[in-house]
Design brief:
Shape of chain A: globular
Low-confidence stretches of chain A: none
Helix content of chain A: 40-55%
Number of helices of chain A: 11
Largest sheet of chain A: 6 strands, mixed
Strand order of the largest sheet of chain A: 3-2-1-4-11-10
Order of helices and strands of chain A: EHEHEHHEHEEHEHEEHHEEHH
Oligomer: homodimer
């Protein structure tokens, strides 16, 4: 009998729901026969959306959820009051062991709160960080934490470093990943109170390849594999990446339209430029896992299309196959003892 | 008799000192006859460097300083021990009223510490912020604070907003500048403890055109003129701007070399691309003023060349002509009473 990896997918969350989510789910099951998707949302609507597709029925099932949590809703209240929302239903499937993972492009706040409150933390994990992959000159780096826990304490950052290191090594496949803490200078005595307290703790971690501070300027160059910071700073980094990239590309395109000569050139460089821009787009690298929970929760970008949804679902397979949560449990317990 | 605006210039600080600093100083006095530069550094060396240039002697004078503070030196100790360094000598000229402003491309730390300790704060100013202009899609924004005061308090951020608003209005010439606080979401209830405390205080300021929170993604789009944040976050924003820009341009250039077709196109778009990249380079916009001091201190980028040095010196003229410090004094005193 086939052992499926069961991924619950929020069909109602994100800018392109449900169409692109449904397409991504179908693409995922067609590409990997060990995946079973539980597509969560309004049953009739989803049945309608699935009609054009052909796929093995045992790999994709609809799970009814009548409500939707909107992005603007205060997360805590929404999780409490909308018991039949796609996010709450999906999280509960993970909690009850009926799904191994949950993927959502919906409200970040609701996913973060729901992960903590409904799925629950692994024993010993103080705060579950959100950890997206960001593109660099040489590949990708893991930015951890990026939105889950503002005003974190040094012990949280140390756990982020550990969990991030395990993820990069076993899911992304980087041997002995270089871990650095975001700082405003390269020297050990630089930084704010949080960084100054955290730095010596990271230095003591024998299980980490801690390489010291990283200045924001060096992050895009790929000088570290795991970029540790508290959530406010991480959120600024992730969003500024996106903003600077978008505006710069826009300005370059505009600049190319400034003369006949450059217009002609633009036609010729267009395919190469498109490829480059794509390789520097954070949304190309699947969703951001919320680490340290009893099951895997993956938040994909609100603007996710089918491809990112598919990638996020496949990411859950690697996570499961590599027994990441067992590795986190073992690591956190060892350090506690 | 001509009333000069007297700008002390650190001839020994920065990657291209003294050559580019000397050239920038000469260019500045040649372009504006109301400027008098006090070029600070090792006299014999500077006399030698000035030989190739012709300029009105009464507009440029060398002031001897035998020592240089290196970037790697701990700032507080360096300021204390190197009494005859170009930074200490320059700051003292401002303190003693022998210069109106001081420009340095040298050690950021030493400039920040020296500004506070040697020049001193305007009465009522709690912390002097460093405030560079950053390029946006539509022009420039002032990023305040960007490195001077980590772990700032809400009252500091309110003063940053006030001083930044005065600077943008009277030096950069933006009427009724839009002031925003960097946050991780647009809603008022979002943020870390510092932002949540500061937000209502900014809302109460009748002298400010406070437009609320700004997410990092929207900063490069130019949605606000004055971007308020504490120094750690500001430093991350400034340096990531630089890093993402550099890597993206590099990737685009690399991408264009990937085929014969795009190589040909690259030749045609090269001038337009160069222009665009330049317009998005923070160092094009002169130095960063350290606001709230009894005289003006301007920190220019360590990699500054003659053009940026010249721009920074000219910036001091506008600052002086617009009586920015009188306006800051008046504003801070009014709010205190």
């Amino acid at each position: 009998m086939q052992e499926y990896i069961r991924v619950a997918v929020d069909a109602m969350g994100g800018d392109h729901a449900p169409d692109e989510i449904v397409k991504g789910a179908v693409d995922a099951v067609l590409s990997r026969k060990e995946i079973r998707v539980l597509l969560i949302g309004q049953k009739e609507l989803l049945e309608e959306k699935l009609k054009p597709y052909t796929f093995p029925g045992e790999q994709l099932e609809i799970v009814q959820a009548s409500q939707v949590i909107e992005t603007a809703e205060p997360p805590v209240a929404a999780i409490r009051s909308k018991k039949d929302s796609s996010i709450v239903v999906g999280m509960k499937l993970v909690k009850n062991g009926e799904a191994d993972a949950f993927v959502s492009a919906g409200s970040s706040g609701a996913v973060l709160v729901g992960g903590q409150v409904l799925v629950g933390r692994i024993k010993g994990v103080e705060r579950p960080p959100l950890a997206p992959l960001i593109p660099t000159k040489t590949g990708v780096s893991l930015l951890i934490d990026c939105g889950a826990n503002v005003d974190a304490r040094p012990s949280h950052l140390v756990q982020f470093a550990r969990m991030g290191s395990i993820y990069m090594e076993h899911v992304v496949g980087i041997k002995n990943p270089r871990v650095a803490i975001v700082n405003i200078g390269a020297e050990e005595e630089k930084g704010n109170a949080l960084v100054k307290e955290t730095f010596p703790l990271l230095k003591e971690c024998r299980d980490l390849n801690f390489i010291g501070s990283i200045e924001a300027r060096d992050i895009p160059h790929g000088y570290a594999d795991v970029i540790v910071c508290e959530a406010f700073v991480g959120n600024v980094i992730l969003k500024l990446y996106e903003g600077v990239g978008a505006v710069l590309i826009d300005k370059i395109k505009g600049g190319m339209m400034s003369s006949l000569r450059s217009k002609l050139g633009a036609l010729l460089v267009k395919p190469a430029l498109k490829q480059t821009v794509k390789s520097f787009d954070a949304s190309e690298y699947g969703g951001a896992p919320l680490l340290g929970l009893k099951g895997l929760v993956v938040k994909t970008h609100g603007s996710s299309k089918a491809k990112e949804v598919k990638n996020s679902i496949i990411q859950c397979v690697t996570f499961q196959e590599q027994h990441i949560n067992d590795k986190i449990k073992e690591n956190i317990l060892r350090e506690d003892g």
